[in-house]
Amino acid sequence: MRAVMAAVNTNVAASVGGVTWCLLDYRLEKKWSAVGFCSGVVAGLVAITPGSGFVPPWAAVIFGAIAGSSCNYATKVKFYLGIDDALDIFAVHGIGGFVGNMLTGLFAADYVAHLDGFTTIPGGGISGHWMQLAYQLADSVSGFAYSFGGTCLILFLINLMPGLGLRATEEAEIIGMDDAEIGEFAYDFVEFTRDVVNGGDMMDDESKFSADRDSPTPNEKAFSSTVGDDPHRSR
Fold it and tell me: Is 84 helix (H, G, I), strand (E, B) or coil?
């Protein structure tokens, strides 16, 4: 039964997190975002991970709502700190994990943990065991310090190795990392967007990919604007 409870909590928190993120994005963009929904789902999953087998289902709704909203707002942190976090890993996994860990200390229920027949815990804040919040906070801070310190050390050592620099050059970012590093594109539409739709005037010698063939010709660059007016194009 405890496994069933964990499964229910996981799905509830993920669903509520996705809806919460969508609603927050809608207030700004005035449209429903599939990407926003997926981001909220991940935030809800991250938050409920430490508490899925310890909290009641109604608490999973709170997990999803708080995680979805806090992680959504946390995506703005990278702009204030000037950090490169294109996938919002810190906002979703860092903040989501911290929120979930603290909420577990608040909503952990002794009767939920005991559904497996042998686990006995004092519970969290709702069970009168407020000290659990302090334990969860200590766990979060120590885990953050270990992960941050260890990651910085690993990245520092990697950056010292020839050919493994952490930062790409500005030129490589402009032409695209796939093109700069491996000389081809993982997805065809990347080059189409860069060179055709945006009308990019790139030098062939800057691109490993374009250097091996004729770069988009003026006719190719005009393709996106003329294809809709082509009288011979089948309807």
Answer: coil
Can you spell out the DSSP letters for 124-186?
-GGGT-THHHHHHHHHHHHHHHHHHHHHHHHHHHHHHSTT--SSPPHHHHHH-HHHHHHSS-S
User: CB neighbours of 7 closer than 8 A, spacing ≥ 6?
Assistant: 52
The pLDDT tens digits of the residues spanning 144-199 come to 999 999 999 999 999 898 878 788 778 877 777 777 777 777 666 655 666 655 55
Q: Is 202 strand, coil or helix?
A: coil
Q: Which residue has the higher pLDDT, 216 or 150?
A: 150
Q: How far apart are CA 145 and CA 123, in angstroms?
A: 26
Do 216 and 196 contact (CB within 8 A), yes or no?
yes
Residue 86 identity: A
Q: Is 69 helix (H, G, I), strand (E, B) or coil?
A: helix
User: What length does the chain have?
Assistant: 235
pTM score, whole prediction: 0.72
Q: Where are the alpha helices (DSSP H) in the chain?
A: 2-29, 34-48, 57-74, 77-81, 89, 95-107, 110-113, 131-160, 170-175, 177-182, 188-191, 218-221, 223-226
Tokens matching residue 124: 């969290």
Question: Rounded to the nearest 5°, which phi and psi values hold at 50?
Answer: -70, -20
**Tokens encoding 182:** 């491996």
